[in-house]
Amino acid sequence: MVRMGPDVPLLNEYKQEFFWKRFPQTVLGGPRFKLGYCAPPYVYVNQVVLFLTPWLLGGIGTLLCQLQLLEDLHAAMLSGLLMLGAAVGVQALALYATRRNGMVERLGVPNILADEEEVEFTHCVGPETVRFIAPGKRFGLNVVLHTVLAGAICGLGTWYVLLGRLTALYGSVGVALVVFVLSWVTLCTAEYSLIVNTATETATFQAQDTYEITPLTRPLYILTFIAVDLADRFTGPVPELQLTSQVLHVVFLVLPLLWALGMLSPLDALLLWGMEQALVFGLGGSPMSSNLRLLGMFAMSVCVPVCTFFIPSTLGVVLFLMAMGFLLSLDLSQFGTYCGGGSRGAHGDSGWRRGASPAPPSWRLGCSELLLYLGLLLGAMTEAGLLHHFLSPSQPQNLAWGSQAAVSYLLIVLFIVCWALREIQGTYVFGGVFLNPLYPRGMANVRVFKQRSRGLHVAGAIRRVLLNLVSPFAMIAFLALDGSVQQLHTASLSVGFTRAFRVVWQSSEDALLQMVVVVSVRLAAGDTRLPGWDSLGTGVQLLLVGLLSDRLLQFLSKLKFALAVLVTSWTEKKQRRQSAGTLLALNASLCPLLLSVVASAQLAWARGHRLPLSRLHLLPADSGSLACALRSAFARGSLGALTPGSHFLGRFQDRVVWIMILERGYGYCTVNIKGLELQETSCHTVEARRVDEVFEGAFERPERLGLNQGINLHWGNALTPCAALPVRVYSDARNVLSGIIDSHDNLRKLQDDFLKALVWLLLRNCVQRRKAFPWGTDEGTGGGGRKSQSPQLGQSTVTQPAEAVMVESNISSLRFRRDSSSLTSFGDWSDDDDLFGPQPARRTVALVSTEAQLGHTVLQTGPSLPGSVEMDSLFENMALQPLQPLGLGLGLPAVDKGRNPEVPPTESSGTLVHENFSCPHSELFSLPSGWRTAPLLPSRLQQLRPLFPEEWFRFTLGRLALAVQDEASEDVAKALKEDGGLRDLHAQVALSCLISLGAESAFTSPSYVYRVYCGDVPWTEGLKWLSENKELYQLALKAFRYSFKLLFDQASLGPMESLEELFSTLEEYERDWYIGLVAERGWQDGVLQEKPFLFSLGHDLTMGTYTGRVLSLQEQLVQVGRLNGEGVRGQWANLSWELLYATNDDEERYSIQAHPIMLRNLTVQAADPPLGYPIYSSVPLHLPCF
């Protein structure tokens, strides 16, 4: 990615013109007064007339009211009816234009280079003009709804801004006139967007407005303002309500500016955001991980204060609130899973993986959890009932005495202890400013790190008990002993205590802080009574403290983010612009205004923390172990206070993982894990290097880094390190194989190792077919195959591994690529081929075909020459031998029958070696008849017979026979070793495979080895026979890959010293390794199944070298830090505006350039698609953290 200079504009030049066309449309509600081409004047005149129509029609009613010809209500009704008629006319014209355009289509040559579609206008009311100005609605219901709503808005708006009303509010005719004129501008923008043409809003929640919800956004806000005014009109003289109406009339004037700046939520997001805010701050709940969960939880939570209001007994109220607060704070979806029969099923497991890997540690519900919850619920209800019945006062008392005093002091002690125990769990204390001297540093060994962390784990366990068991019961005692519970039959106290009893369980740490603040205020007041504060009641006091504390934390986080942007605009050279000094001086001089803007942002809407529903969820196995580590860290408090919307970043080697808290409840936490791109771009490298520096300053020894003062030098960074978590992850090691794969000695040794590996696999496959192999068939394979159905091969029944992976190769399984001219050879030719160098493998991606599940395996073929006829597809059931006498050899090499009297064996002529076994147990190790019909001359096989490893065959046969037979195993093994017929049979099959792979003499070059390893086997004489025996082909390919791994190991560690060592090594390959290609499905399955080791051979075309890649599953320390949540949401909001509104999707745009402090490039990647581009994302994971 190209580094951008400091003075690059925020929008590219070709997008600036587009932006200045769209932004005036947004401000005015939809009129398009600036086009990229010439348009007749009547196009602009028509838009002006339609824009001012509501003002003209409303002015008629206002004039008649001012002349006292009509009352204000009748004048408003008249204006509304007139606007209704005008809206009907506009919709009728739009419908007529739509039908007319459907019947008559104008032919023309479109300009594909134009930024927007050019319209040819023919008449001021022509179909093209009407269609351009008023496109119309897509749904008939919206036509009716929007038309009626337009009349209502005009009528109520006329009543809202009548001059008499405005004069009465402000007592000045001049002010009333100004408000009247500007208010009608607001009304006109809303009416135009509703009826004529909808403006593109800057605040966009959905990428597409499918159901035409956007036109309703502006009228909804106008109706809200009018509703407050109507309440002031009909409720009598209420000073507070009259003041609110005066303020809202002024705010009404700037609504177009607020809509244009995106400070007001669109309608679809407003409903969800409002429910979330009411659930969290009004009812004590938590943000939900999905919209469906939010709707369900909000509906259940609203019923609680309603029922509380009508319960006559205060004891019944306390018990009811106690029970409902506890139950609603749990993950209720697990109760449905448990009742449905899946008591141990993890929520969301279906989206975790598509393989057979073990499920992640999601939140589960079983009998033990039910008993624990039941015990906690009964204990809490008993405590609350007894304390309220016997010790609760009838009136609120001072905390200096009474039954609440001891509980209040206990809450203060619990808060201090829990806070201190949480602080020492992380690498920094006091908000990330100072290094924690108790945290172990400078240790790469996981075992040593765990030993040094035992003290912190003990402290975390104590905190867990205090926070999850002791604190809730102490807070319940405080609420049950409160005197304001006696006054519950008011709406405010019902809502307040509903929230108080709920938040005790939903977020115990936050509830403890809020109660300590309330207690501290009461203790500070002493005997002095605070009339305004004390009259609210404890429940409402806790509600206000919770709201203020949340907004205060948001303010501080936003202020830190704003200061980081300002300071780095000067300190970071890559971010410094020519106007940076002027901007800094201006912000310093207008510091109060800057603070007011940041403070006002607390009232603006923000996107929720829920994930979109239409997502593809994929997750590698590493994240399952990461979820286990996160569960322990959440329980100990190593990552600080967990609040929904918190973001964390994990770093290990070259991998970056993004963790987001979606939901928080009693004993569980819902997270989303994303993986960011692994390709190292320049921007990615700059930010990743700064992330490494931040983590090194926190987790390395301070004396090595010169940080003797113990202060976090990266405090201003968006990332604050928290803890290092032991996680089972794959360590990635890559090696250049120069000197190994190109060594002639190693290539000669590869032939012998291939035969040994193939013999071992053939014998093991024989035993495995009889279902008597001690290792079992559920461990998977490490090479190319897995368990599948059992196709019939000859006279023997062969059981292939399940989900057999067939490697799509360039061997001509259905059409051979011969050295001579052949039409089918063009199907494998490409312009990218290197005719003079190593041939890279093409189309070697491992495929899992649908037929594999049904017991069939199909070798995929490459593309053929366009226009050619595939002989195999036409004559797949015909033998081609009768065509030979006619001279139709189809490009096959000629055979001199006089010089070669021997005829190669075929399936019709019989086998080369018959089953003349001297041992009755040899049938166990017999091979299918189809494997013995290689079209090779017997003399050719006889010449290669010395290559067959007979000593290794006897050793392997003896070991496997001992593993199978239970009685007389020694005699049976001896008899099997002496059976010459069995030995000849395996020798024939092994040598036939050797010839078919082209290794008759030796493997000649690294490129040949690489192609065979990838399954891209060049044509040989027996290749067709081998490809037709699909299971044997898989075993041969697997044996070759095993032999190459043996070559790699022996070149690195030394040669094998004994046959026993070789046997154990092959056993280890089969059990603990996957040896194949990264692009194969088997590699993905191996990762999901958590194979301990994975090996792959690669070819770097740019460097011309061959590489070996080894993944090792081991426990390593993954460093995790907390990100500035407001900074993340701010950058995501800018990303949404830039892509959805400004449509600035340039890959080199300014907003995705590297910013080492804000981590802008990483943050953009982690956004939800289509805005971001994470390489994988998990479903919401419910992790237990009790």
Automatic annotation (TrEMBL):
The keyword Membrane applies. It is a multi-pass membrane protein. The keyword Transmembrane applies. Keywords: Membrane, Transmembrane, Transmembrane helix. One of its GO terms (cellular component) is membrane. It comes from the Eukaryota. Its main location: membrane. Belongs to the pecanex family. This is Pecanex-like protein. It comes from Coregonus suidteri.
